[in-house]
Specification:
The chain is an alpha/beta fold. 26% of the residues lie in helices and 24% in strands. It has three domains: 2-52, no CATH class; 58-296, TIM Barrel (Alpha-Beta Barrel), CATH 3.20.20.70; 298-337, no CATH class. The protein has helices at 2-6, 99-102, 114-123, 140-152, 167-173, 189-196, 200-213, 231-245, 269-280, and strands spanning 13-15, 19-22, 30-32, 37-38, 45-47, 50-52, 58-59, 62-66, 80-84, 110-111, 128-131, 156-161, 179-183, 216-223, 250-255, 285-289, 298-299, 306-311, 314-316, 320-321, 324-325. The structure holds iron/sulfur cluster.
Length: 337
């Protein structure tokens, strides 16, 4: 069974004159009609001329994380979630914070059948499974096989993604994903071209599609000094998010540290505080990540009460009632049990 699963035929491939084209993401990798070749993401490819997933079920890491670490602050706050991901990515960001497992060949993995992963979530007391750490959308077939088992066990499915997925597979994902955190790495196609190797346009389409589907969406923006720290661009980004996804969309503004091929100094914390002020002009829920203190509590935009306070991974939800402000009943765009 394990061998059959490992060789499961991949979806999202079309036949071309020269062989095959993967249609899952905007890179559109081409493959010959014979031989064994991996795509740019290292997770999809052809084997003996047939589309398959060399990375099917090959998990790079498996650990219980706070939901807040994804980061998701408005989805099941305070719960723990079993987290895993594939050994690859369809972007090549030169500041990748997880490059050791996303950008290299030969990363050690452990094969888990869909049933094993879903059962592990139940037996560990997890609220579900988060597909994260690298880029999970390239793992379509494995997640599509596993998600029904997670749901059958009463769990939720979370995706933490770069948003570089084509619209047809995205619409299939929307049928079985309960919550998303998607990166918006800059407000500039030039930035995406120079640093990431993929188009910003696709990410915007992904954000808009998830938001209009009614799925739970949070966005992460990593601020890098001198690269995406222009307040005018922040203002444009905030207006776009508010206009296309809604002013209650959660935005996590996170501090960069030097990793992989980008050796700039860490983002000054004052820059993050400035970004907070700018984004709060258009969005109701803005949080700061990787700062010493502040910017992590959920405050009701209606009455100003603190509904959730966070210190590190400690989460106090006493100001919350049925996902709404306990003081005034205001809508906080929070999914809670
Ligand atoms: S998902 Fe992988 S194989 Fe498919 S087009 Fe994107 S990078 Fe290429």
């Amino acid at each position: 069974m394990a061998e059959e699963r490992r060789l499961r035929r991949a979806e999202w491939f079309t036949e071309t004159e020269k062989g095959w084209k993967c249609t899952l993401c905007p890179r559109g990798c081409g493959f010959p009609g014979e031989g064994t070749v991996k795509g740019a993401c290292r997770v999809r490819g052809v084997r003996d001329g047939i589309p398959y997933l060399p990375g099917y079920g090959e998990c790079v890491s498996l650990s219980m994380d706070p939901m807040e670490k994804k980061p998701l602050y408005h989805f099941l706050p305070g719960e723990q979630i079993l987290s895993t991901g594939p050994a690859g990515c369809n972007l090549t960001c030169d500041f990748c914070q997880n490059w050791a497992i996303s950008q290299r060949d030969g990363v050690p993995t452990r094969f888990l059948e869909p049933e094993q992963l879903a059962n592990a979530a139940i037996s560990m007391g997890s609220c579900g499974v988060a597909f994260t750490y690298t880029e999970p959308t390239i793992w379509y077939e494995y997640i599509a096989d596993t998600a029904p088992l997670i749901h059958a066990g009463g769990g939720v499915v979370v995706m933490v993604s770069n948003g570089e997925v084509n619209s047809r597979p995205l619409k299939e994902y929307l049928k079985f994903v309960d919550a998303w955190n998607v990166d918006l790495k800059a407000w500039s196609e030039d930035f995406y071209r120079k640093h990431c190797g993929g188009p910003m346009k696709t990410v915007l389409e992904t954000l808009e599609t998830i938001a209009s589907s009614g799925g739970h969406l949070e966005i992460t923006f990593l601020v890098i000094p001198g690269e995406n720290d222009n307040p005018e661009e922040w203002m444009e980004m905030g207006k776009w998010i508010a206009g296309h996804c809604g002013e209650n969309t959660v935005l996590h503004v996170s501090r960069y540290f030097p990793r992989y091929r980008l050796g700039k100094e860490p983002t000054p914390q004052d820059t993050l505080r400035k970004a907070y002020e700018v984004f709060r002009e258009t969005l109701n829920f803005v949080y700061l990540g990787n700062v010493d203190s502040g910017g992590s509590d959920t405050v009701c935009p209606g009455c100003g009460s603190t509904c959730i306070s966070r210190v590190g991974w400690l989460v106090d939800t006493t100001g919350l009632r049925n996902g709404r402000c306990a003081a005034c009943g205001g809508d906080l765009n929070i999914v809670s049990r």
